[in-house]
Amino acid sequence: MKYINKESADIDKEINKLMALIERTTTVNDITELRDGLEDFIANYNSISTINGSIVTQNKTLDLADLIPARHVKRIHHVENIDEAIAKASDVLVANHFIDIKYIHEMQQAFDDSYMVIMQNIAIPHAYSEKHVHKTAMSMLILQEPIYMSDGTAIHIIVPIAAVDKVTHLRALLQLRDVAQNNDAIKRIIQSRKNSDVNEILKNYSNKEARENGWDSN
């Protein structure tokens, strides 16, 4: 993982890196709980990376490409507002029983474009209650006509995030941030014609992270 140095003995430093990123992209209701979870998370991945890659493959559901398979990608021409975008983006998660429809309502109520937009490229609606989430999952809505945020930012990509806890989606979230930083990747996603092409782009970022950390991504 780009933001976790597996050779570092200073776990606090690694935690602080992640804490800073998380606080920029979401609201933290319990700092202590989050830090405890991150300690376990980092210890787990540090130990995994020094053993073998086969253990990592057991956690592939944490990769971005696995959380957003081709069947979770939808493209439409336009939406009237962000509430419609969130609903359209999330209906596949309801249909597959990852979330209850009430979670869509919670995301609509909680959406704040001042911090739920990554690198002015991807909106990441999410809610802070795990009550209506059954399994960690993401989906992607691609808009041919952008929706505009309150500051005028044009957004073509909406990725709802549903997480059963504060930790299991972090690896995918960091990979999504890498995607959002690459304007060429964003352009290719918007111009894609097949859902499988989108998933291949996302796989490149999962594999890139695995290579950087010496993990077996197969």
TrEMBL record:
Alphabetical list of Pfam families matching this protein: PTS_EIIA_2
EC number(s) from the headed UniProt entry: 2.7.1.-
Domain of life of the source: Bacteria
Presence of the UniProt keyword Transferase in the record: yes
UniProtKB keywords: Transferase
Family annotation (InterPro entries): BglG_antiterminators, PTrfase/Anion_transptr, PTS_EIIA_type-2_dom
Domain PTS EIIA type-2: 66-205
Any one GO molecular-function label of the UniProt entry: transferase activity
Complex formation: Homodimer or homotrimer. Seems to be a monomer when not phosphorylated.
Protein name: PTS system mannitol (Cryptic)-specific transporter subunit IIA
Naturally occurring in which organism (per UniProt): Staphylococcus aureus
